[in-house]
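Human: We require from you a standard protein entry with sequence in single-letter code and fold as tokens, and nothing else.

Assistant:
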Amino acid sequence: MRSPSVPPPAIIALFLVIAACSQSVAAREEVRVRAGYHGAIAYHPESGSIGWATDRRTDREARVEALRQCGHERCEVVAAVTRGCVALARTGKTHVVQKGATRQEAEAKALRRCGARCEIAAWTCTR
């Protein structure tokens, strides 16, 4: 009767690498889901141009989409959010962005901080 043979070291190493890669992919996906989706608001005060993005996979994707929608070459990202909401309130002279757990909370905070004659110009919420 033969005794069981021990696998060569190369096979064991390959198995360990495959196991580590599988755990790594699963861990990255778990972090992405746990982190939530991203949103952003871009604004150009002089022209009044606004753009926003909601539920993008990365912060970069959200910022790029908000800038694309804003449409002015000098637009800037004024707010970014993950798992929550953000609102932009403005008048002709000033603008304020505020975050909140809900759209209503973000809008109320932005209006309160912006002052009289402000209006909500944009908002976005993410999952």
